[in-house]
Amino acid sequence: GTDRVQLTLLNSENMRTIQDVYERLSPFVRPIHYELQLTPCLKESTIIGKVEIDVDIQGDVTEIKLHSDGLVIKHVCIQTAVENFADVRYTLNNEMISLTPSKPILVGKAAISIEFTGELGNHMKGFYRSTHKGGDGMEKMLAITQFESAYARLAFPCFDEPSFKAMFDVELIVDETLTALSNMNVISETPAGPGLKSVRFETTPVMSTYLLAFAVGNFDFIKTTTKHGTVVRVYTMPGKQVQGEFSLGIATRALEWYTEWFDIPYALPKCDLLAVPDFHSGAMENWGLLIFRKVILLFDPVKTSSTQKENITLVVAHELAHQWFGNLVSMYWWTDLWLKEGFACFMEYLFIEHNYPDYKIWMRFARDQITRGMNLDSLRNSHPIEMQIDHPEELDEIYDAITYAKSNCVNRMLYEYLGEETFQKGLRLYLARHAFGNASTVDLWNALTEASGQDIAHMMSGWTKQMGFPLITVSKVRRDEGSCVLALNQTRFIVDGSNDDARSKWMVPITTVIGPSSRLGEKYILSEEQTTFTVSIKVDEYVKLNANTGGFYRVAYDGPLFDCLVKNFDTLPALDRFGFASDCFALLVAGRYSATQFLSVVATAATTETESAVWSALDDGLDAFAGMLAKTDACLKKRLDAFVVTTLAPMLDRIGWEAAADDDSLRGQLRSQIINRLARAGHQATIEKALVLFSEQTANQNADIRGSLFGIAARHGNDES
Ligand code: BES
Ligand code: ZN
Question: Does the global pTM surpass 0.90?
Fold first, then answer.
């Protein structure tokens, strides 16, 4: 029944095969319910615990294996309907404990009781301790958990794989002055010896071990209730609770909106968001007890910029989306990690688009997610979204831009292709069907296939099973009165310009936007390597591919099509301008466009561009280009600098140094980018003005350009002020 994985290790002297390095749990022993009692001792850094696990034995077994890592086992007994094994033999090996009762255990129910002790470590995994400064300036201790991906086994013996879902009754025995939190509400607090109390929590729904959580410490909180009756609280270090107001508002709105958008209620009676001084990742979605690094959750109205507010909103929306994507429906195995991470990422943006349209969040999506996903996935040795994982230790590597950003973009591509209604219908079906259970990628495709009436697995599996993404090369075959015939070709886009030996192909949703009216034109699924494709356009119209930059691919145009788009750049919608600009630089790096072509886009954009996200695609390009020339060709670098000065100085005049009354923070970012670029190109007038503003200490009035001013002062300030 167990999967044995053979690992081949190479070392300098010989080659050997090690068996049993990693073993998966037996499918014949299923946990149903855990009764867990833990006494974390913050002062001694120890955990004393006992756990009773009700299991369902689905085949006669001579041994039972479950996870346990770094725990000292004191005593084990197993009780079945017919037998009581009072002192069971056990061995510990490879993060597992294997229990061998004196006789085989027969099919049916059994209860495993284990007494153990463990360490309350300080390595930010398992159940661990951390410190914070109290109001009196003294160091205070707290203890929290981080169980994803495979660290619950550090805190108690358990079946620590995501498909071994069970219910949990938790009891924590803690110092009577401290607050103890877990996934569920407290049902009782009773004295438990000198200075101690026992805190019991309601039974959880069936859930994966990696989502269990505990927190013990000195916390304050604020709270509210959603319109559906869920209690939402933000817990902070003492006295900091007002800084949680902003997050509390976002969390409440997100719980309400997800409940409606997924058409599935939030599964627990409460939802706590806890801010701690430092944390292993930015945030963790433990069911009903989300934990955040405090700089990510708390909001100091004086110090927090609008970008930080946006960050808080994104992170809170992400962890709350997990309450459905991941917690309610979990992946069977880590190969499908993207099923939770990719969707939590996508839902962040969808939530904000619907609830805070002022953020123009798809522009941020383009700048962050598309850029990050494509940058990593255009490397020759990227990896597919669905990746074979044997040992959870290999997981650390796949919490990366492929699992997060590329998955996010692939989800958006499907969303754009199906439209929100069909996409939503498919996701609702998927979540409802697998609620309190597990799912794999195919289950998602099946639900979307049912919702759309199209073969989604056929279309999408190329995007999740192959690494890389396509470059669509477009050239004009013929232009008639009412139409344009285009030749399309797809090849994998590799940034070093090399060829793809695997000759990967994708089912590429080709969409079109027609200028100058920005109406959407024909769509087409490109599945072959090359084809021709006819777009109906009038004489004075032109076509751009990949409308909204909705697809995870790049587009290279032939000379005339390229020139036409550059000429009409300012008429394209902002997301299309972003995509065109971003493709231009990537294609320059890959050797498909010339520097002149890239700079012609910069020059055009400089006369009209108003969006910082679009400009950032060009600015990143200029930065990389200048950096490369600085190392290789000083003379060309000078020419590039001269080009930057002549092109951008008028742009800065147009935008101005001072924020206009109707400027938003994005305009401020654009201003900051241009000041920075001009200064880096050595534009004396810009440098001098920046130094004056810096020395007048007006930087605070110019919050948006503060970063650039500081940078310029640091580089040029010494000799001039
Ligand atoms: N589930 C992750 C946290 C995590 C990361 C656990 C790596 C184990 C290993 C969480 O939902 C997450 O994705 N957090 C992100 C923030 C998010 C807004 C992208 C993080 O911590 O960076
Ligand atoms: Zn996540």
Answer: yes
Domains belonging to the chain, first-starting first, are: 1-211 (2.60.40.1730), 329-465 (1.10.390.10), 469-572 (2.60.40.1910), 594-721 (1.25.50.20)
Please list the residues that pair with 18 across neighbouring strands.
Answer: 7
Residue 43: both structure tokens together = 């002062």
Contacts for 539 with CB less than 8 Å, ≥ 6 apart: 481
- Dig out the tokens for 666 from the structure: 């994005």
State pLDDT tens for residues 513-571.
999 999 999 999 999 999 999 999 999 999 999 999 999 999 999 999 999 999 999 99
The DSSP annotation for 255-305 comes to HHHHHHHHTS--SSSEEEEEEES--SSSEE--TTEEEEEHHHH---TTT--
Residues with CB under 5 A from ligand 2 (ion): 341, 344
Which residue, judged by its Cα, is nearest atom 11 of ligand 1? 284
For the CA of 396, the closest atom of ligand 1 is 9
Cα distance between residue 720 and residue 568, in whole Å:
43
**In whole angstroms, what is the distance from residue 96 CA to residue 478 CA?**
67
Alpha-carbon gap, residue 219 to 183, rounded angstroms: 16
Give ligand 1 pocket residues (Cβ under 6 A): 148-149, 281-285, 314-315, 318-319, 322, 341, 344, 399, 404
